[in-house]
Amino acid sequence: MIRELDIVVLVHDLPAYGLTQGDVGAVVHCYKDGVTFEVEFVTGEGATIAVLTLSQQDIRSMQAREILHVRALAETQSANEGHSALCRTRVCSRLGIASARASLRLFPAAET
Fold first, then answer.
1. Is residue 72 part of a domain?
2. Within-domain flag for 109
3. 27 burial class (0-12, 13-18, 19+ CB within 10 angstroms)?
4. Taking the model in full, what pTM does it have?
5. Per residue in 37-46, pLDDT tens?
6. Alpha carbon distance 92, 105 (integer Å)
7. For the segment 63-85, what is each residue's pLDDT rounded down to a tens digit?
8. 15 domain residue, yes or no
9. Is residue 23 part of a domain?
């Protein structure tokens, strides 16, 4: 079951938003039907790429044995530019990022 603030994985490309299969987002709202969600996708700096209404056919839960991957964002004009800082802060908090402007650092460096 997908809940608000869950980390989810996109299961297919959304080229209009520069998103590709495997991109990670955070659920910022669950609709009452239980199968439709508002999902926010952000850059490593916390800037919103898109906030999209997606269904269970578009996303899946992130699995415990999966690892995040970084890629360059394609240049697109998102219809959701300028989304509120509140959602960015909530997503960054869920991802363990100190602030919406902080660099993405999900795993501590290995000690030598």
1. no
2. no
3. buried
4. 0.68
5. 999 999 999 9
6. 11
7. 999 999 899 987 754 434 444 44
8. yes
9. yes
